[in-house]
């Protein structure tokens, strides 16, 4: 049962990171070019999605448009 939960968590992480990456404008991606991030998220098992979430996503903006 624990093994199934771990597999589901990894799949959910991949799906979330991939969808988040695809919904992000290529102009706002940090670190690597957009196509490279898509490949990293899809090809590198657990580390790829975590790298996207920590260092590839755009910085957060508040509703007024200032950086947090």
From TrEMBL:
Its main location: membrane. It comes from Aquipuribacter nitratireducens. This is PLDc N-terminal domain-containing protein. It holds the Pfam family PLDc_N. Signal peptide: none annotated. It is found in: Cell membrane. It is a multi-pass membrane protein. Keywords: Cell membrane, Membrane, Transmembrane, Transmembrane helix. The chain crosses the membrane at residues 33-54. The keyword Cell membrane applies. It comes from the Bacteria. InterPro entries: CLS_N. The keyword Transcription regulation does not apply.
